Amino acid sequence: MAKERGLISPEDFVQLQKYMEYSTQKVSDVLKLFEDGEMAKYLQGDAIGYEGFEQFLKIYLEVDDVPSHLSSALFQSFHNGQCLNETLLKDVVCLSDVSCYFSLLEGGRPEDKLEFTFKLYDTDRNGILDSSEVEKIILQMMRVAEYLDWDVSELRPILQEMMKEIDYDGSGSVSLAEWVRAGATMVPLLVLLGLEMTLKDDGQHMWRPKRFPRPVYCNLCESSIGLGKQGLSCNLCKYTVHDHCAMKAAPCEVSTYAKSRKDIGVQSHVWVRGGCESGRCDRCQKKIRIYHSLTGLHCVWCHLQIHDDCLEAVGPECDCGLLREHILPPSSIYPSVLASGQERKQSKRSQKSMDDLNVFTSEALRIEPVPNTHPLLVFVNPKSGGKQGQRVLWKFQYILNPRQVFNLLQDGPEPGLRFFKDVPDSRILVCGGDGTVGWILESIEKANLPVVPPVAVLPLGTGNDLARCLRWGGGYEGQNLAKILKDLEMSKVVHIDRWSLEVIPQQTEEKSDPVPFQIINNYFSIGVDASIAHRFHIMREKYPEKFNSRMKNKLWYFEFATSESIFSTCKKLEESLTVEICGKPLDLSNLSLEGIAVLNIPSMHGGSNLWGDAKRPHGDICGINQALGSTAKVITDPDILKTCVPDLSDKRLEVVGLEGAIEMGQIYTKLKSAGRRLAKCSEITFHTTKTLPMQIDGEPWMQSPCTIKITHKNQMPMLMGPPPRSSNFFGFLG
To answer: What is the rounded CA–CA span in Å between residue 377 and residue 403?
Structure first.
């Protein structure tokens, strides 16, 4: 952190951000109180004295008693004697400086910040920014950069050059239109006006409570935390302390991006004392006496664990260790403003509309991955799998760069996709259930990425049919994430089909539930199967605690299937609907069905294969491929269907008939192998004449009479896990 006169300390800055995190006030609201409200009495031209500054902090931070050392240090940091009114005494600070600084740190839309900042510094209210007003904006950007520990000696000339470029018409001043245009086209302007990060790289630890099953020593006082006792551990660096030692802890050593040009391209070790869980030195292979005191060092990037005495033998440069294939080290990420002038010009956005301003976060930092690596973008749904999702999020924040790991409950997938938009050879890992995977695939499609990265799945919770088919298993059960990432290195890309579903309702007084999705990734069904799923869904929504394991889910499903068999709500389904495959009617007259399932993958309801097992006969591959060719888009011949093997990327759907709830329950509980194979086709249409239960990818609803059209939409690259080994991970059922 910079130590120049007038800057607050790192500790004060951390405390200030904590206040801001819990405050609900906005700078613009507080500013109104000083301009024409009850605080106007403290205003002296364009300035406020120390008493008025204290009132500003109390209102804005919603704190009755701001620590005197904090308010004093902040006041001095703004004390530059550059207010417009030159007759003011030196014991005042410019209100516009204060309000602008806090507006830069607080959240908000970039377009709002642009206009707000323009009005703040257009002090003579003439609608333009002259050279002195522009210089004050640069001064404020520099101040924020110093607090974020950036190398301001490099930043000032860059900002001065950029601010000159904002004057598009060369008039010597900047209009609001030029200011807004610059915000949409120039990254540097938005870097410090809108860079809002959960990870502020300000030395603040990301604490989480943790109970320790083995002796652990506090990094601050070095005394034992106690076996089975709770302490605090930083997600980023594994710095560990007693609860009461946290406030005195040394700053976090982790910086997630390079803040100076000299740090770009070369990654150094970042050592933290303790955390040597293996108990063995990776340098000399001798034991580290971790049970006797705080000893040993671990690197937060390559995860080497060494003796203190072995440090000199290791060397300063870090290669990110066994997981270098996936990691974006800080040396590969740097502020776009530190790029060379030519690089900045090449990276200017071609789109200049205000609608594009929401991409500022992705452009604030530039990424240049280590050659011959595949940086991993990780999305985690913390709610998936009970508490599993949150634990997975914490683990990935440590073993990877935290900037690669995105909590889907905060801002969804869009920020991560924007951040990785131009990263070559990247991959995506989705940690969640089938619904989370579908959400990510849809977001990827909408993002219009230049190259679509392949997607792998770490299945959380129950179900996980797509993950099963891609060999990632039925559910994560706490295995070593590093081993799973090594499996990901051996994965292969497959292109999974995705299908559009169009529901055209008939004119009727019957009411329908909302259709959950318009895209099918896994399967679609009508009738008994959907009816059971609908009852299952309603009960789980009402009593979620009864559906917290795969075994309980199977028992509940079997119970619903049994009761459904008694009432037979979907009996004689063929009388209530007709089916067309590629424009040809599918004959159901000789069948007694209660349900029809349309499969894109050979797994439903947590591993049930309605299509059943089939082995392609030797020597007949060519014949079947011809049957699946463009001249024969439909297969209904029972003999050929017996040998058809489901394929995730053949642009074909498998159609299966279900004879009743008992059969469905038997298939789900593995007492029966499959339903009745009806067809394999590339397009299917249903016409229904009464309200029927339906489901898409496990999400059921009741649908009034309608026409449903299912057509091929596109393909998405996915990662197929390596073939299962004898001791495969998280119980994959091949």
So the answer is: 9
